[in-house]
Amino acid sequence: MIKSSQIAEIIISALPYIRKFRDKIFVIKYGGAAQTDEVLKLNFARDITLLHMVGIKVIVVHGGGKKINQTLDLLDIKSEFCDGLRVTSKEAIEVTEMVLSGLVNKEITALLNQNGAPAIGISGKDGGLLKAKFLDREKYGFVGEITDVNTKVIYDLLDRDYLPVIAPLAGGENDENISFNINADLCASKIASYLKADKVIFLSDIDGVLDKEGKLISKLDENSISALKKDGTISGGMIPKIDACLECINAGTKAAHIINGKIPHSLLLELFTDTGIGSLIR
Predict the structure, then answer these.
(1) 80-97 in b/e burial notation, b at 16+ Cβ within 10 A?
(2) How far apart are CA 35 and CA 39, in angstroms?
(3) pTM of full prediction above 0.90
(4) CA gyration radius, the chain
(5) Residue 77 falls inside a structural domain
(6) Residue 267 belongs to what domain range?
(7) Residue 137 counted as domain residue
(8) How many domains does the chain have?
(9) Is residue 94 part of a domain?
(10) CATH number at residue 115
């Protein structure tokens, strides 16, 4: 059993980080098991509320792959992945938008509000927040590549002490009536890049980037990532996550983190302890 003195020491050890991170912008990509397990969902909401209350400006970008899969299966709409991205047909984009913006986004927003965080849920199509073009229509269908982020929308919300919760959807570059499905990792990366956020944090279902023996690689840079891609250590769904990290680092974000969202309070352990628990990319 943890003694009261140990609890006090843990709290005090977090103070330098709280002071350091006050008024900084953190973009947090929320997905995986942490988004579906009831206990982890509550932990996440409380962690985000704490970050907000100590003065960190938090933006949440969420996925919703499992809910999308379930709904597509119910409607008998085929779904497949290529290079870690969901191939999105005309029928699938309609379902994707309905699930992400109408269901998942509102569930997350409500949970955050219930736990004391003044969250506002929006999609990338709201207020012209995200504009995109086809990544490769023949290969991926209605998967978009973000070409512009209207940062004023986000700054206006942050300035009013709101916490934006963003569904990864985008409109067309020229305001045409079209919806694009955006990979949530790449969406978080692009938003962090335009904001030049202090940190972008990706909640995953694994501890971070693992070597061929399954051991965590705690620190990476562009050169080590290139080598790990080449020898197949980084593959599949980890590729867009790592590419997202590199994109925002090269655009001015100070640090990118990949952590295991299945570990209770993983956000606090990564941000407010000396050792952290995931992979840090600088």
Answers:
(1) eeeebbbbbbebbbebbb
(2) 10
(3) yes
(4) 18
(5) yes
(6) 18-281
(7) yes
(8) 1
(9) yes
(10) 3.40.1160.10
Q: Is 62 left (phi over 0), alpha (psi -120 to 50) or beta?
A: beta
How many CB atoms lie under 10 A from the CB of residue 277? 20
Place of tokens 């995931």: 278
In degrees rounded to 5, what are phi and psi of residue 170?
-140, 155
- The candidate with the shortest Cα–Cα distance to 116, out of 176, 180, 52, 173, is 52
DSSP the chain: ---HHHHHHHHHHHHHHHHHHTT-EEEEEE-GGGGT-HHHHHHHHHHHHHHHHTT-EEEEEE--HHHHHHHHHHTT---EEETTEEEB-HHHHHHHHIIIIIIIHHHHHHHHHHTT--EEEEETTGGG-EEEEES-HHHHBSBEEEEEE-HHHHHHHHHTT-EEEEESEEEETT--S--EE--HHHHHHHHHHHHT-SEEEEEESSSSSB-TTS-B--EE-HHHHHHHHHTTSS-TTHHHHHHHHHHHHHTT-SEEEEEETTSTTHHHHHHSSSS-SSEEE-
Is residue 237 one of the residues assigned to a domain?
yes
Taking only the tens place, the pLDDT of each residue in 81-122 is 887 789 999 999 999 999 999 999 999 999 999 999 999 999
Q: What is the pLDDT of residues 22-54, one digit of tens each?
A: 999 999 999 888 888 899 999 999 999 999 999
